[in-house]
Amino acid sequence: MAARFFQGFGVSPASTVGMAVDTLPQRTKSLPFLNLHPLPGLKHPPLHASLTRFLLTFQLPVIPIAVLGYSFTWYWWVMSVITMVPSAYAEYSPLIQGLLFLGLLVGTLVAEVSCSGALSDRLVGVLARRNGGVRVPEMRLWGVSAGIQIGNTVITSYIVDAYPLQSTSVIIFYAVFLNLSAFANPFFIAQWESSAGWTWTFTTQALVVLVAGTGVLISLQVFGGRLRASAKEPGWVNAEFDS
After folding, report:
1. Which spans are transmembrane here (predicted)?
2. 31 — phi, psi (to 5°)?
């Protein structure tokens, strides 16, 4: 029946198949190590899209709250510790000062392996079953974590779960402000320690993390769902979803 339909217009079915094949994008898996040409089958956004999408991410309230809250109430304390360890043990040689970082390295590795992504996935699975099989991004927010470094896993998994189709943009947003907070810290931490002393410098930082950092996470836990529901749906998606 289809053949008679096409023949009625003077077009053979075989030629229509060829037309359909010709219009499909020519996909490939053979790419050079350094590729400067557009990838076939993918829509390529204009050059300014990276900046505009970064700015538009501010319209998704849970993203700036989570990222800026973590970066400027929590993560900068991590950099304070790393920056000030040599000054705290100035009487030791540079070799010994370097060895003092082994404890931080081992602790970070243990926390990442045993208390990071795999554990987070298991906890979310348990919480989803308790919630009738419904999984929400706020399940990624922990009340207690193993060390301050684990906050990276908590925040990144939360923002990606909140906007999985825009994961590239939200991770870029996260990386920019995380590095800004790390960049700013060394400019004032040494002067702060010189004027206030070791005890009050780091006690104050601990109180900031305890009060402000915990407040950010509690706010997201309580209001995150409503904030996401009230936000405008992003007008873009990752390249892999836009082909």
Report:
1. 51-68, 99-119, 139-159, 171-190, 202-223
2. -125, 145
Distance separating the N- and C-terminal Cα atoms of the chain: 33
Quickly list DSSP for 185-220.
Answer: GGGTHHHHHHHHHHHHHHHHHHHHIIIIIHHHHHHH
Rounded (10°) angle between helices 49-56 and 167-184: 80
How crowded is the C-beta side of 116, counted as CA atoms within 13 Å?
A: 14
Domain borders along the chain are: 49-241
Closest CA to 144 of 181, 172, 114, 115: 115
The whole-angstrom separation of Cα 34 and Cα 120 is: 36
The residue type of 185 is N
Query: Which amino acid type is present at position 175?
Result: A
Q: Tell the residue number behind the tokens 């040409």, with chain if given.
A: 37
For residue range 155-204, list pLDDT tens digits in order.
Answer: 999 999 999 999 999 999 999 999 999 888 888 898 999 999 999 999 99
What digits encode the pLDDT tens for the residues 4-58?
Answer: 544 444 545 445 445 445 555 566 677 788 888 877 777 777 888 889 999 999 9
pTM: 0.79
